[in-house]
Amino acid sequence: MTEELRAYGAGIVTEPPRRTVIVSSMASDSHTWNLVYLELLVGELGFDVVNLGACVPDELLESECLSRRPAMLVLSSVNGHGHQDGLRVIRRLRALPELRGLPVVIGGKLGVGGALTAEETAQLLLAGFDAVFDDQQGAGAFRRFAATLPAGVTQVEA
Ligand code: B12
Fold this sequence. Notes:
This protein is of the alpha/beta class. It is built from five helices and eight strands; from the N terminus they run βββαβαβαβαβαβ. This is Methylaspartate mutase sigma subunit. Residues 18-156 form the B12-binding domain.
């Protein structure tokens, strides 16, 4: 149900349409449990989730973002190539005027040598990511970022 108004005691509970978040891996990465975890986490935050799965070609990421116009794109990578894949993908997405304002974040185990250096993180941010969540950070920082987006959570009006 996308929109619902129902009498509830003296007040009215309004459920605005839930916004969609795309969760995805990138072309080189075949790991999947990271995506299942993110799907559950983002769902808990009040969004509808479209999980594109593993080894997603850049073309598909682009077309899904253009057609669905999500509230956010969450990229995950754990195979160590996330820094490389992420730079390529974000440059492609940000080259499209329609996707310049789309919140896009990346997280996981992004480099082959443990945590990314400050310089590598800065490269990702400069290329267009709104946030980078290295494995060490945990879910707290991501939750706080997601809370800044307009979500589809239930609002109670008197
Ligand atoms: C299972 C597994 C596989 C399976 C995957 C099966 C499947 N269907 O998923 C198989 C055997 C296919 C595999 C293959 C490979 N793997 Co593997 N794999 C693992 C393993 C053992 C568990 C991963 C897992 O499922 N974890 C459970 C999920 C829930 O957690 P997670 O992935 O760690 O993600 C967490 C965080 O990273 C974070 N997170 C992830 N993404 C994001 C995004 C955001 C926005 C946020 C906020 C957080 C976040 O949240 C998650 C929960 O805490 C890990 C080692 C380990 N113990 O973690 C290695 C590991 C991920 N694999 C590794 C490697 C190197 C490979 C291979 C390259 C090996 C090879 N030489 O072929 C290939 C890569 C294949 C490819 N093309 O990507 C390395 C990566 C090292 C690195 N990053 O530097 C690891 C860490 C093993 C190691 N210690 O070396 N692998």
